[in-house]
Amino acid sequence: MGYGMMNLCSVALGLIGWTIPVVQLALCVCQKRGLGRLASVLSLGACGVAIWFQICYDEHLVNIGDWSALMDTIKAVRVVSLFLLITTVLLNLALVWAEGHRKEGF
């Protein structure tokens, strides 16, 4: 995989990390059976791999000595990674809460 593809894969995996719990929440509201706890594992895993791709890309910039690119992007990468992580965790907490309430009959 080319180093440029790492950014695209990171975005795609981040979106997957958000999409999985949103779809599962919709299924939970419709009283349909979804993936259960596996959805949270897949979602958090996609989020983790997305952040890992960004770290690998930053390592690539360090290895080739492209300090200006690294300095230009590192703040944005830090903010977006934090936003991705917090949003994914909150979506998965909402999913776990909704599934627990669905099983209790609420």
Distance between the termini: 47 Å
Kindly state the percentage of residues in helix: over 70%
Number of domains: 1
Overall shape: elongated
Mean pLDDT, as a whole number?
A: 90
The sequence of SSEs as H and E is HHH
Uncertain parts: none
Tell me what the structure shows:
It contains three helices and no strands. By secondary structure, it is mostly helical. It has one domain. Helix 1 runs antiparallel to helix 2, helix 1 packs parallel to helix 3 and helix 2 packs antiparallel against helix 3. The termini are far apart. The model has no long low-confidence stretch (mean pLDDT 90).
Structure keywords:
single chain, 3 helices, 0% strand, elongated
Topology:
Blueprint: H1 3-29, H2 37-64, H3 67-104
Summarize the structure.
The chain is mainly alpha-helical and 106 residues long.
